[in-house]
Structure formats: C-alpha cells, structure tokens
Amino acid sequence: MSRLTLALDVMGGDFGPRITIPASLQALEQDPMLDILLFGDSQLISPYLANLSHRLRQRISVCHCERVIKNEQGLSHALRRSKGSSMRLAIEAVRDKRAQACISGGDTAVLMGLAKVLLQPLPGIQRPALVSNIPTIDGKQSIMLDLGANIDCSAETLLQFAQMGAIFAENCFDLVYPRVALLNIGIEELKGLKNIRDAAELIQRQTQLNYIGYIEGNYLLNGHADVIVCDGFAGNIALKTLEGTAKNLFTLLKNSGNDRPSWGKTALKKILLPCAKYLLKKYFKQFSQFNPDKYNGASLLGLTSVVVKSHGSANQAAFLYAIQQAAWQVRSEIPNKISSGLEKK
C-alpha cells in the first residue's frame, strides 16, 4: 500500500469539525500509510487534537483558514468570494501536489465549479459527473451517475457518463463488461425526453459498452444494471429518495419499542412490527447493505485528480467512508484509468 496525503475541508457540511475531525482521526488509526491536511479554523480544530498521541499528531497538518463558502447568493458570487476558504485551499493543495485527493461536505455546485477551474477536466470530458455506489438486494453494488452536478445533460454528455461509469465499474467491481442502463420513465424505446432517447442511440453504437436499455426507478436496487446513467436532476432526486427511505426504515425499526403518539396502538402495528423485527434479525446482513452511511461520498468523475463530495448531513461513519473512498480511488489510479480508457474508445 502506497503512502498518500488527503486534503480535508473540515468546515464543510452541517456539523463541521464535530464530525469531520473524529472521522479523520479514525481514518488515520485504520490506515497507517495515510497523512491528512486539515483545512479550517484552527481554534475549532485544536480541541479535537489536544489529547492526541504523538504517533497520530505527526501525520496531521492543520492549515488555518477563517473563511467558509456559503452559496447563498448564487454560484458565481460564491466562486468569486472563495479565495482563502477551507474548500478552495483544500482543492489548491491537490492542484499543487501537496495532497492527492480532496474531500468536502460543502456546497456541491461550488465544489464542482472550483474543481473544474483549479484541477481541470480530463481531455475530452465536457462535464465531470457525480458518481456513487448504491447497494442492491443481491448483496452486490451498482454505480449511478450523475447525482446532481449537471442538471441538464445533452445526449453526448450522457454518453460520456456511460463511458466513464463503465470504466469506474470495471475497476470498482472487477468486471469485464459491465451492464449499462439509462434511467427513464419506462423501458419502451419511445418513452422519455428527447435527450435520453438520443443518448440511447449513441450508446447503442458503442460496441465497447454493454448497453442493456432503459431502467425504471423501481429497479434501481435490483441489480439489473452495473452502471445507471442519468442527468443530475433525476439522479439527485432518485438517490435522496433511496437514502430517505432507508433511513426512515432503520429509524422505524429502531424506535419500534416506543409507544409514540404518532404510531398509536393499532392492530397494524401489532402485526407488522414483530414481522419487521424477525426479518431484520434473520436478514440483518442484507438490511445493513442499505445503510446510507456505507455509501456516503460521491466522486467528481472526469477530473484530473480525485475529489469526493460528502453529504452535508453525514455523520462520523459516513464521512469516514468518504475518506476511505478517496484513498481507494487514488491508490487505484482511477483518473488515469478513465483517461486511458476514453482514449481507447
């Protein structure tokens, strides 16, 4: 395992250092070949490092910055005022080769905008895409892109997403010919928006891609496709719907013993909860696959370096996963493999 350094925007997200610093320390404990640059307010960071062992402390560098980007007045305004912010400095550390990847829970649009300007897309890539793994009911995984970086996508852009996604899936899941599908409102050829229908024609012509047609939202977790391609508008809604459903299910089962007024002592509760508990106990491994914390960290695919976007509401376990995902991509040389794979296509 090669040594690497990651740059973390510890001020991003809903909870800032309260989540990002403990997750960073946990990552250092688990990965002895990892060093971390922490970008944020040193006064807020220092208390979390006060009782740290010398062994861990020497693998951490705190890079003080007082500014945090808030996209409250539009993307262009946020980008203009990004100088000296924790997010921008973390990306600049990657640009300047002081770190090999950046992780941030900050605003997605600003992160994408800064990454495109400071790190540059790979040659020929029109738009980088947000990609993430999603679980399937057979215990495996699929990948889905775009998840919110590009609201409107042309057919040509969707084709590039399919190409990048296939290369990513080959390396992530050790597949030879991953199945590629387009997310649509039906499986019939005439269904959907024109750009999706045009993208289907373009992808079908690519003999290097194993295109299997359209996929509907109710089959996203069924393992029918290894790569699910969509624009960022549909992808973001679909992903958050899946995450919200999973979190609500876990909360429901966790609180099933509490007599809350909203539930009421209904016959339905008495019948369903014992069944749910039995299924959770019997199929715990399968249920645990759908824990959203295990899939936090959407990568900006198509850049010259690795950038991972953590959910703003991520807890410690989820942010740790985002760090681990960034480390894996660097060590697997994902940007280089996508670049060389696209050249062959």
UniProtKB/TrEMBL annotation:
Gene Ontology MF terms in the entry: phosphate:acyl-[acyl carrier protein] acyltransferase activity
Transmembrane segments: none
Catalytic activity field: a fatty acyl-[ACP] + phosphate = an acyl phosphate + holo-[ACP]
Coiled coil, from the record: none
One biological process term in Gene Ontology: fatty acid biosynthetic process
Protein's pathway: Lipid metabolism; phospholipid metabolism
Gene Ontology cellular-component terms listed: cytoplasm
Keyword annotations of the record: Acyltransferase, Cytoplasm, Lipid biosynthesis, Lipid metabolism, Phospholipid biosynthesis, Phospholipid metabolism, Transferase
Tagged with keyword Lipid metabolism: yes
A Pfam family assignment: FA_synthesis
Subunit structure: Homodimer. Probably interacts with PlsY.
Protein known as: Phosphate acyltransferase
Species for this entry: Pasteurella testudinis DSM 23072
Underlying gene: plsX
